[in-house]
Design brief:
This is CBS domain protein. Keywords: CBS domain. InterPro entries: CBS_dom, CBS_dom_sf, Diverse_CBS-Domain. The protein is an alpha+beta fold and 137 residues long. The protein has one domain: CBS-domain (Roll), CATH 3.10.580. Helix content is 36%, strand content 19%. It is built from six helices and four strands, in the order αββααααββα. The strands form two sheets. Strands 1-2 form a two-stranded antiparallel sheet. It has a two-stranded antiparallel ribbon with strand order 3-4. A hairpin with a 2-residue loop joins strand 1 and strand 2. The longest helix is centred in the first third of the chain and has 11 residues. It starts with 23 loop residues before the first helix and ends with a helix.
Length: 137
């Protein structure tokens, strides 16, 4: 297996993001349209948080009733800043795949934003890591 491979080799560079002013409806649309599970929240290219699809699911089913409009009610109750992780763990593009794997193996979240000079430049997920390790065999 290769040693000291930087995470920049496997991170997603074409990012789908939201701003704190966007709505949870916007988040749900992007999750479904792009088949992704993590959305970095940015202001002027600076990372301010992360929202995951599981975060959205947790509030969507918090008060399940027989009404069809439960998501509408819940989505109107919360904002992106209320739901997002406000201090996500980040790494630089030179962090190694091993370092990122060690971080993700010990936590409950599944993505790490990649930041260079305070600007969001990528995101690496457990899926990216799994694909990398599969390619090694």
């Amino acid at each position: 297996m290769k040693q000291r491979v930087p995470v920049s080799e496997i991170m997603t560079r074409e990012l789908v993001t939201l701003t704190p002013k966007d709505s949870l409806y916007d988040a749900e649309k992007l999750f479904k349209k792009h088949n992704i599970r993590h959305l970095p929240i940015v202001e002027d290219k600076k990372l301010v948080g992360v929202v995951s699809y599981s975060d959205l699911l947790k509030i969507s089913y918090a008060d399940v009733t027989e009404e069809n409009d439960i998501e509408a009610v819940v989505y109107d109750m919360y904002t992106i800043p209320q739901l997002m992780a406000k201090s996500p763990v980040i790494v630089g593009p030179d962090a190694t795949i091993k370092e990122v794997t060690e971080i993700l193996s010990g936590v409950t979240f599944h993505s790490i934003p990649v930041v260079k000079d305070e600007e969001l430049v990528g995101i690496v997920t457990t899926t990216d890591l799994l694909k990398y390790f599969i390619d090694q065999y």
